Amino acid sequence: MYGIERLIAAIAPHRCLVCGAEPLPLCRPCTDMLPFTPKCCYKCAKTAPGGLCTACQKQSQLCSIVVRTGYGGTAEQLIHQLKFGRAKAVADCIALAMVPCCPSGLITHVPTATKRIRQRGYDQAALIAKQLALHTDQGYLPLLGRAGTQRQLGQDRQTRQRQLLNAYYPLRTTKTVPKDTPIILLDDVLTTGATLEAAAITLRKAGYTNLHALAFAWVPHQSQPG
Fold first, then answer.
1. Helices (H), the chain
2. Burial of 183 from C-beta contacts in 10 A (0-12 / 13-18 / 19+)
3. Beta partners for 66?
4. Distance between CA atoms of 165 and 62, rounded to whole angstroms?
5. With the CA atoms of 166, 84, 33 and 36 taken in that order, what torsion angle do they form, in degrees rounded to the nearest 10?
6. Which of 37, 199, 204, 217 lies at a CB distance of 3.0 to 4.6 Å from 75, suitable for a disulfide?
7. Cα-flanking dihedrals φ and ψ of residue 202, to 5°?
8. pLDDT at position 207, please?
9. pTM of the model
10. Could you tell me which residues are beta bridge partners of residue 146?
């Protein structure tokens, strides 16, 4: 757990959102019960084991897209607690849930808008990425910085794409990672895919071609959260 959360947990332990067991926001048995997303293209919904159908793959900067579960119910509650409830311990629960579907490679995160980081005191995607790297015994390294401050939640695809133009830039760490390294771009929620694509474009320009996206929850286009 993190800092003051240890003290809070000692006084009022976390309880599982599903079964009420202590001491985690989501216990391991309930984590394992989270439904997996269907093997479909997250852009057009056609059947596609790698998360991108042949047609959409040609228009994408990504080699694959993997999402652990659907956005709703328990997954939605976890994300809400992590983003708006300052419950950092949730990041570890989400990371554990993502272990079975995590590709092999160097894990990095898609940076959250700086305004959100200042409000929350942390970048939730970075917390998840670090914990996932520990649980999968893979490397983690921040490779991207974020220049924009726009809020992406609830925006349509065109608005997201416009806002994300030049939103990311490569950090100096990119100079230390071989260009043929498989890179796992992690984000908490996948909606239109514009955020992940924008981040992938930046890494492509930096010389990386083996790029994969990994998200915790998928929001189908017709049911994006407001």
1. 4-11, 28-32, 54-58, 73-84, 89-98, 114-120, 124-136, 157-163, 194-205
2. buried
3. 214
4. 17
5. -20
6. 217
7. -65, -40
8. 97
9. 0.86
10. 168
Of the chain, the end-to-end C-alpha distance in Å amounts to: 29
* Three-class DSSP category at 6: helix
Residue in the block written with tokens 């991207």 = 144
pLDDT(3) > 60: no
Q: Which amino acid is at 30?
A: C
Checking if the pLDDT of 4 tops 50, the result is no
CB 128 within 8 A of CB 98: yes
Q: What pLDDT was estimated at residue 24?
A: 83
Do 188 and 82 touch, CB atoms closer than 8 A? yes
225: pLDDT confidence band, cut at 50, 70 and 90?
very low
Q: 67 or 225, which is more confident?
A: 67
CA 101 to chain centre: 12
* Six token digits for residue 110: 């898609």
Cβ neighbours for 127, distance < 8 A, ≥ 6 positions apart? 82, 88, 91
- State CA 24 to chain mean position distance: 20
**Predicted confidence (pLDDT) per residue in 129-152, tens digit:** 999 999 999 999 999 999 866 555
CATH topology for the 37-223 domain:
Rossmann fold (3.40.50)
Judging by DSSP bridges, how do beta strands 168-170 and 144-146 pair with one another? Answer: antiparallel
Q: What is the pLDDT of residues 54-107, one digit of tens each?
A: 999 999 999 999 999 999 999 999 999 999 988 899 999 999 999 999 999 999
**Is the Cβ–Cβ distance between 42 and 194 less than 8 Å?**
no
**Burial grade of 94 (CB within 10 A; 0-12, 13-18, 19 or more):** buried
